[in-house]
# Entry
Amino acid sequence: MWSGSWRVRFQEDKVSSFRKSKTAEPWPENATLYQQLKGEQILLSDNAASLAVQAFLQMCNLPVKVVCRANAEYMSPSGKVPFIHVGNQVVSELGPIVQFVKAKGHSLSDGLDEVQKAEMKAYMELVNNMLLTAELYLQWCDEATVGEITHARYGSPYPWPLNHILAYQKQWEVKRKMKAIGWGNKTLDQVLEDVDQCCQALSQRLGTQPYFFNKQPTELDALVFGHLYTILTTQLTNDELSEKVKNYSNLLAFCRRIEQHYFEDRGKGSSSIRSS
Amino acid sequence: MAAPLELSCWGGGWGLPSVHSESLVVMAYAKFSGAPLKVNVIDNTWRGSRGDVPILTTEDNIVSQPAKILSFLRKQKYNADYELSAKQGADTLAYIALLEEKLLPAVLHTFWVESDNYFTVTKPWFASRIPFPLSLILPGRMSKGARNRILVTRGQPPFYHLREVEAQIYRDAKECLNLLSNRLGTSQFFFGDTPSTLDAYVFGFLAPLYKVRFPKVQLQEHLKQLSNLCRFCDDILNSYFRLSLGDG
# Structure
C-alpha cells in the first residue's frame, strides 16, 4: 500500500508530530475529503471547518485528496462538511474524525496529561462556541453579508428558484439556532467584541510558544488554524472580522508557521489552500 | 459604589440559595467579589415576566444574562479575577465554553425535559412561585425552551429523536464532569486559594445538580462519585452562603 520511497520522504521530513502505534491499520491511498465547491459556493464557516480537518490530517501525516462537490452537505452523514471517505467508512466533522483517526492508531494528543487534555477540549469548545458561532452569525444574520455574499454563493450551483429556497431555508435554520443559544438579540458589534475576546484568550494561551502545547501541534492547533486562516483570507463586505484577528501578532505568526510547515512544503497532491 | 444593586432571581431550596443555575452563578460571583447585592427572590407577588431571569437592576440600568451581569459588576470594580494571570483568564473563557457546550444540555434535560423529574419536582416548584395564571404557562414555556435548545444545538442527524440525543448529551456531560474533576484536583478553587469567575460558573452549574432531589438521577450519581467536586460545592455553600440559609 505505502510505496517505499514515498514513505521515506515523509519520514525524513521535518520533525513529524504524530505517533503511530505498532498495530496501526494502514491508511488507504484513496482517502478523500469532500467539501463544497471552492470557488463559487463554499462559505466562510464551512471553509474553516474543512481547512481544520485538512490541517489535522496533514499534521498526522495522513494523505487525503480534496474533492469539491456541490451537494457535499447532503452527502454528509451528519449534514455538516467536511466529511472524509476512508476505505468503506464515512466520517464527518473534526471531533468524530479525530476519534476515527485515533482508532486507526494515529493521535496527536497522546502525549498530553489529563489536565492538558481537559484544557485542549475546553479551548476547542471555546473556538466552536465563539468563533464558529460568530462566523455563522456574520454569514447568515448580518443583512449586508447575506445579501451581497451568502445567498448568492450558497445557492449558486442550483437553478432558480431552488437557489433562493435553499438559501432561505438555511438562513431560517441558522437564525433559529442563534435564538436558541441566546445570540438572537446580539448586534454585530457585540459579536465582533466576542470574536476579539476569543482571539485575546487564544493569543494569551499561545503566548510565545510555537503551538498551543509547546512543541507539537494537536487537534486544537488544527482547529484554530482552520478558523483564523480562513477569516484572514476570505473577502467579506468589510474587514472588521479579519482586523480583530490581525491585532494579535502571535496568532498571525502561528497561522504562517502552520501554513509553511504543513501546506507549502508538502508539494502538490492536495489542492492549494488559498481561497479565491 | 453607593448605587443599590438589586438582583431578581429564582429562590432557593434543598440547602441552596437558588435552584436556578444562572441565578446561582451571579449570586456566587457577587459573594466572591464583595458586591453588595440585594437579592429579590421571585415569589407569588411578582408581576409579569420580563424576560430572562436573573436580572440586575440599578438606578439607571437593567442588565440580564449572567455574562452581561458579571461584566457590569466588573466595570463597577467588583472584580473577582484581578489576581488571575492572562493565561488563567483565557482558561476561564475556555472552561466556561466547555460547561455551556457539554454540561448545560444535560443539566437542562435533567431539570426540564426528563418527564419524571419535570412533573414531580421542577414544575411544581416553579409553578408555586409564579402568580396565577402565569403558573400554568411559564413552566411549560421554559420546558419547551430547554427542549428546543437541546434539539437545535445537539439534535443534528444522525440523531433525529430526543431519545438518541439524550444518550449522547449524558455521555458528554459525564466526560465534562470528569474533566472538571481532573482540573480541580485537590485544590480548593480552580485558580489557587481565592474563588474567581470560573468557580462561580462551575458552582452555579453543579450545585443544583448536586443538591436537588430528583427521581431520575443518573447524572447526579455520577457527580457524587467525583468527591472533589462535591467538596468544592459544599465548601462554597458553607463559606459564602451559610448565613443566608436561615429559611432554606
Summary: The mean pLDDT of chain B is 84. The radius of gyration of chain B is 18 Å. The first strand of chain B starts at residue 5 and ends at 9. Chain B has nine helices and four strands.
